[in-house]
UniProtKB/TrEMBL annotation:
This is Lipoprotein. Residues 1-18 form the signal peptide. Keywords: Signal. The keyword Signal applies.
């Protein structure tokens, strides 16, 4: 019995370990060698997240957490019913922004209608769709939607995402960063995303803050503008970090 508990704890500790521990910037050699960037499908949950944390539930126990999860899912469904096409619109806008910015920076961008893993496999199998691609820009959106850190804080739009530029030939990570776009960094639990750092980008406008869920839902159409704005800033953040520079890479402190 003790051995089982110990094994279970070990698995929990391994699962909680961060997979992204530091921001990796492109060096000069990488900037010169990468000409063609492949953009696979963006990894994201199927629903916009509408979430409010309540510290009391953590004290009460598992049953209260289950109630919170059910309430959270109900809010997601309600919000999605009001904006059924919003998530796809934001993803399309984000892809378009990334491609436009990268091309302005001198890269050739290939739009890939496949997952990141399918693209890697396709490169090894000489799939013509991935032919000539030097690196893949993998984007994993961990959380996207409206978030409230407690019942006393407003819902605000934001996104937490991981972006990795990975070479196709040797699968080496050429650049990597974690972004918190819009959320109050005091409210974001990075451990839950299996990362231990994030570059915070403060973009949220007070006009897109909503004091409670009822207010957010009553202004669902208007609030869509906040998420579209976050998607545009997220695209600019990712592509901007891959900018080619003659004098080396300098990270702008945010």
């Amino acid at each position: 019995m003790i051995m089982r508990l110990a094994a279970g704890l070990l698995l929990m500790m391994q699962g909680a370990c961060a997979t992204h521990t530091s921001h990796l910037t492109m060096d000069r050699n990488t900037q010169k060698s990468v000409r063609v960037i492949g953009l696979p499908q963006i990894q994201v949950n199927k629903q916009i997240d509408i979430r409010q944390e309540n510290p009391v539930y953590a004290i009460i126990g598992i049953s209260a957490k289950m109630v919170q999860q059910l309430a959270r899912q109900a809010k997601r469904i309600q919000y999605q019913d009001e904006n059924p096409a919003l998530l796809q619109q934001c993803l399309n806008q984000m892809r378009a922004g990334i491609k436009q910015r990268l091309r302005k920076q001198g890269y050739i961008v290939k739009d890939l209608d496949m997952t990141y893993w399918q693209a890697l496999s396709g490169y090894r199998k000489n799939d013509k769709r991935v032919e000539g691609v030097d690196a893949l820009l993998r984007i994993d959106i961990k959380q996207f939607g409206y978030f409230s850190g407690s019942p006393f804080k407003p819902y605000r739009p934001g996104m937490v995402m991981v972006a990795d530029l990975v070479s196709t030939d040797d699968r080496k990570t050429l650049a990597s960063n974690v972004y918190n776009v819009g959320f109050d960094r005091e409210d974001v639990s990075l451990l839950s995303f299996r990362v231990d750092y994030a570059t915070s980008v403060y973009v949220a406008d007070d006009q897109y803050f909503y004091k409670n869920f009822d207010t957010l839902l009553s202004k669902a159409k208007q609030s869509a503008g906040g998420l579209k704005f976050v998607a545009r800033v997220a695209a600019e953040s990712v592509a901007g970090d891959l900018k080619k520079r003659d004098n080396g890479y300098l990270m702008v402190k945010r």
